[in-house]
């Protein structure tokens, strides 16, 4: 399939790799990103950010800065106190003892991380704003800072917020009764235990955040163009923080250049720009520079986890205990408390049937950039732990990791399957995905090659991950039960115009995921109209009634669900009108390939477009049918969706340099039926590379004083093309039984699966040296040092050769 | 941005085939000139350390990060941006291949990647996979994982049977 579907069609578009309609504008430089927005008479804003991780603000002197020609205003935290409400936290997990603290838009008395806002300058030009910023004289009184959870939880540690003892922001438990867990661990034949650090990541979508605000004083109305994954959530929060009426706030996020979770949150900068536009009566534009992104946009991950996995010598897993310390940074960002709890702790057992399992999480304040959702958000952390520990367990009992997995995967006949944390996996054929992967890679042959390589002193390894994740967020009742301060349903409106052309308004907010195309495919199939006659609109709260946005791999699962229900309603109404026109019984009229026809009398038919016209003319409608042809639907899913799969990687580690070379990467994923296989495949590939990035290259580092050492793209290693091998992808398709389209979501699977796959492969390569766990990123230096240490510790001649990968079977 | 305290310099350059004589401040980056003066907002700014390559344009056929060069440094230069490459309905073969091979997702890095790819194929119409991956060293894409970009560039190279046609588009 290589056309955009120029005419009404007979063959379904569902399942066709239709090229994206988004691409025409994005390929020609005609995208509409926030930084491309310019308003007449606009001013430019820049932020002054704290260079200290923790300091008292003795004075912020702006006199000299105000003298710079072109400066319109300078705002400090002290001036704004009471004029802008604190930046809200929108996820309050029940039972988590959440220590909520105020997050002022600009620091008023204390700065709490490098990057914390101290002042905003608004001027006629960016140059003037920057010049003035340089002249602001801040008198800081530096205070002691804590950057790691271990330091922060020390009773004598400096406190990030007064009154929060031990800097503990939350304490949360889930799963089996702790006594039962303890008993199961004690009684087990085999226990493996590991302390694992999952490093902090910096999201780095290629588009920096930006905001352009315009305020109409006569109407008290704000328009805010902003880099957002969820415009309606931004509307709610921005209105709340500024005390504006929600119906007078318009949020526009047309093209957004990637988010990966970092554009979910409501940030101080966005609110400040809107405030200034109202205060000054002129449009104000702010664009983050990349340096700001590193310190002032939310980070991801940053866990220290202690994990115990127990089981029998035959490979059966019996119990799991996870104890986590999650670094949440200096403030609780919008969704932050839900990430290391709900999205992490409820799926710690992964795809394995482990009868007894529990998670305990401490969320900790530190003097670092706030941590929030980053691609996968909680599920990558959970998957990494169980996948690493299963490998450790396999090694301990001398069984191949593939076989341990096979033995414990939830079997296909056990769905819906409720795990020890009480969540119910919808559907799965986990073993089929594993088998499919093994069709592509012969593990037995690999083990022989590995042994041959070992004899030559070469370190090669195979990594496997059989993952499941929880996405398609989600049932609103569950959202409420777990403390998410919003709904997670989705809205769609399908409007058929008099000419039969179709407009779809969706509450999701795609920013690279391609729903302008995939949703049009769904519409084209259902209504039988041409792709070119369908427009999918999103990202403007004035256009779209309501929505909760794009994150948690929910857009196609939940947004597509809403679309599907709305389409059913449109067709129902159109069928009544068609039956009236055809003088037939409604039950006898069916829509096929864009025509309503009377069953058994194909000549008695009326086109969908004609029905649309008649619906709008309303000259003769059946009794009780209103004019017009549109329908909306609010779809509230009955469950999350649970995509799964098996990923395999083959690596070689150079023992002399510690450098890991990726030789093969193979992914088999199951996200249910694929509306557009090309787009699904693209999501998988991109996700995998982000997961590989965490395993091998990426990692934020703070020094003891809380300075971010990895504060630019020169210091923080994003994956580059030449470091990567071709990736092999394959798919199985197991529908989500509760979803109108059967789809599960695929935006995060690659990232979730890839990180443990790669680390497992490297550890398999190093196993013969007695190295069984290293923390990420597995940089050449870290691996080389581990090899040196292992060699120094081993008896002469014992390390570096012999059996491959530590497998004893 | 414009700073009135600086003296203006007169410079003549050709942007997407159109010759322009401009009076510009000496501290104006080429990227700022394109975006703020000409409103050619297809050239994107993704970083401040010349790492991301989203702002890559062609200067006399060479891929240049437009955030690293001042506009007044380029008298007489021919500058090609993504807006001059092709347009909806009449895409350049590289743009066409990016569309067919799904070599973009959010689209933000895409203009810089496209210009890099055009320059690469102008130098070497049939690059190996390794050469393409090396050639992408100056750009960062966070969405695609690069593989579809590599495929698209290889396909575009194969389709661009007549290199003359390409230079017509970009020179």
Describe, in plain words, how this protein is organized in 3D:
Chain A has 809 residues and is of the alpha+beta class. Chain A folds into three domains: 156 residues, 2-Layer Sandwich (Aldehyde Oxidoreductase, domain 4); 193 residues, Aldehyde Oxidoreductase, domain 3; 342 residues, Aldehyde Oxidoreductase, domain 4 (2-Layer Sandwich). Chain A contains 21 helices and 28 strands. In chain A, the strands form seven sheets. Chain A has a seven-stranded mixed beta sheet with strand order 3-5-1-12-9-10-11, sandwiched between helices. In chain A, a hairpin with a 5-residue loop joins strand 13 and strand 14. In chain A, helix 16 runs parallel beside helix 17. Chain A is globular. Chain B is of the alpha+beta class. Chain B folds into two domains: 75 residues, Ubiquitin-like (UB roll) (Roll), CATH 3.10.20; 78 residues, [2Fe-2S]-binding domain (DNA polymerase, domain 1, Orthogonal Bundle), CATH 1.10.150. Helix content of chain B is 34%, strand content 15%. In chain B, strands 2-1-5-3-4 form a five-stranded mixed beta sheet, with helices on one face. Chain B starts with 8 loop residues before the first strand and ends with a helix. Chains A and B meet through helix 1, helix 4 and helix 19 of A and helix 2, helix 3, helix 4 and helix 5 of B.
């Amino acid at each position: 399939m290589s056309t955009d579907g120029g005419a009404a069609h007979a063959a379904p578009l569902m399942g066709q790799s239709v090229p994206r309609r988004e691409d025409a504008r994005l390929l020609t430089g005609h995208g509409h990103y926030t930084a491309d927005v310019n308003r007449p008479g606009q001013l430019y804003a820049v932020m002054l950010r704290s260079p200290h991780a923790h300091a008292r603000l003795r004075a912020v002197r702006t006199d000299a800065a105000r003298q710079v020609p072109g400066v319109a205003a300078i705002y400090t935290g002290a001036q704004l106190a009471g004029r802008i409400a604190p930046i809200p936290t929108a996820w309050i997990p029940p039972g988590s003892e959440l220590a909520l603290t105020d997050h002022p838009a600009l620091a008023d008395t204390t700065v709490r991380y490098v990057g914390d806002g101290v002042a905003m300058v608004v001027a006629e030009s960016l140059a003037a704003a920057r010049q003035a910023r340089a002249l602001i004289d801040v008198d800081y009184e530096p205070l002691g800072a804590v950057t790691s959870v271990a330091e922060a939880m020390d009773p004598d540690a400096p406190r990030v917020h007064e009154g929060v003892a031990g800097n503990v922001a939350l304490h949360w438990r889930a799963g089996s009764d702790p006594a039962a867990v303890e008993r199961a661990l004690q009684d087990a034949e085999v226990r493996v235990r590991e302390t694992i650090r999952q490093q902090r990541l910096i999201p780095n979508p290629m588009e920096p955040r930006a905001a352009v605000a315009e305020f109409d004083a006569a109407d008290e109305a704000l328009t805010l163009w902003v880099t957002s994954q969820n415009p309606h959530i931004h509307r709610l929060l921005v209105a709340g923080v500024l005390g504006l009426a929600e119906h007078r706030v318009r949020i526009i996020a047309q093209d957004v250049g990637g988010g990966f979770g970092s554009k979910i949150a409501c940030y101080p900068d966005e609110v400040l720009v809107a405030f200034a536009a109202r205060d000054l009566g002129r449009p104000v534009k702010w664009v983050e520079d990349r340096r700001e992104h590193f310190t002032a946009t939310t980070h991801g991950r940053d866990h220290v986890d202690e994990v115990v996995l127990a089981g029998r010598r035959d490979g059966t897993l019996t119990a799991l205990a996870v104890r986590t310390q999650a670094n949440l940074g200096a403030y609780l960002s919008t969704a932050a408390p839900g990430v290391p709890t709900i999205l992490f702790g409820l799926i710690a057992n992964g795809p394995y049937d482990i009868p007894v399992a529990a998670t305990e999480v401490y969320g900790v304040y530190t003097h670092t950039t706030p941590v929030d959702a980053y691609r996968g958000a909680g599920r990558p952390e959970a998957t990494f732990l169980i996948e690493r520990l299963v490998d450790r367990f396999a090694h301990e009992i001398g069984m191949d990791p593939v076989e341990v997995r096979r033995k414990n995967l939830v079997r296909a006949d056990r769905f819906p399957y409720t795990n020890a944390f009480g969540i119910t996996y919808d559907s799965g054929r986990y073993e089929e995905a594993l088998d499919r992967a093994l069709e592509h890679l012969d593990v037995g042959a690999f083990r022989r090659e590995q042994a041959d390589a070992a004899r030559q002193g070469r370190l090669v390894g195979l990594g496997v991950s059989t993952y499941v994740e929880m996405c398609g967020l989600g049932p609103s009742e569950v959202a409420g039960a777990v403390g998410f301060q919003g709904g997670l349903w989705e809205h769609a409106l399908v409007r058929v115009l008099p000419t039969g052309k179709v407009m779809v308004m969706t509450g999701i907010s795609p920013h690279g995921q391609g729903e302008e195309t995939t949703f049009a495919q769904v519409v084209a199939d259902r209504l039988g109209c041409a792709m070119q006659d369908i427009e999918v609109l999103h990202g403007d709260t004035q256009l779209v009634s309501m929505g909760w946005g794009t994150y948690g791999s929910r857009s196609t699962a939940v947004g597509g669900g809403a679309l599907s229900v709305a389409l059913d309603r449109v067709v129902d109404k159109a069928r009544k009108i068609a039956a009236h026109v055809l003088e037939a019984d409604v039950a006898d009229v069916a829509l096929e390939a864009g025509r309503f026809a009377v069953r058994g009398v194909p000549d008695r038919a009326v086109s969908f477009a004609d029905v649309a016209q008649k619906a709008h003319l309303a000259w003769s409608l059946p009794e009780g049918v209103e004019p017009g042809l549109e329908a909306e639907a609010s779809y509230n899913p009955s469950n999350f969706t649970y995509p799964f799969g098996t990923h395999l990687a083959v690596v070689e580690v150079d023992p002399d340099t510690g450098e890991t070379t990726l030789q093969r990467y193979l992914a088999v994923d199951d996200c249910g039926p694929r509306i557009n296989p090309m787009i699904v495949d693209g999501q998988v590939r991109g996700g995998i590379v982000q997961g590989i990035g965490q395993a091998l290259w990426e990692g934020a580092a703070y020094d003891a004083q809380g300075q971010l050492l990895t504060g630019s793209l020169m210091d923080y290693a994003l994956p580059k093309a030449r470091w990567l091998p071709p990736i092999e992808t394959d798919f199985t398709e197991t529908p989500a039984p509760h979803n109108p389209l059967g789809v599960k979501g695929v935006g995060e699977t690659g990232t979730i699966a890839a990180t443990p796959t790669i680390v497992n492969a490297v550890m398999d390569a190093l196993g013969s040296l007695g190295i069984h766990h290293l923390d990420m990123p597995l940089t050449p230096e870290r691996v080389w040092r581990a090899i040196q240490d292992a060699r120094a510790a081993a008896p002469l001649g014992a390390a570096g050769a012999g059996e491959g990968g530590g497998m004893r079977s | 941005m414009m700073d009135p305290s600086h003296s203006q310099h007169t410079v003549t350059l050709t942007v997407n085939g159109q010759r322009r004589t401009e009076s510009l401040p000496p501290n104006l980056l080429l990227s700022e000139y394109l975006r703020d003066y000409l409103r050619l907002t297809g050239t994107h700014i993704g970083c401040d350390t010349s790492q991301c390559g989203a702002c890559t344009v062609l200067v006399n056929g060479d891929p240049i990060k437009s955030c690293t060069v001042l506009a007044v440094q380029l008298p007489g230069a021919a500058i090609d941006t993504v807006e001059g490459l092709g347009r909806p309905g009449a895409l350049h073969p590289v743009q066409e291949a990016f569309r067919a091979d799904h070599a973009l997702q959010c689209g933000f890095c895409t203009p810089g990647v496209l210009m890099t790819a055009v320059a690469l194929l102008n130098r070497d119409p049939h690059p190996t996979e390794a050469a393409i991956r090396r050639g992408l060293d100056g750009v960062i894409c966070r969405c695609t994982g690069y593989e579809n970009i590599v495929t698209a560039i290889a396909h575009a190279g194969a389709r661009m049977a007549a290199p003359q046609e390409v230079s017509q588009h970009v020179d």
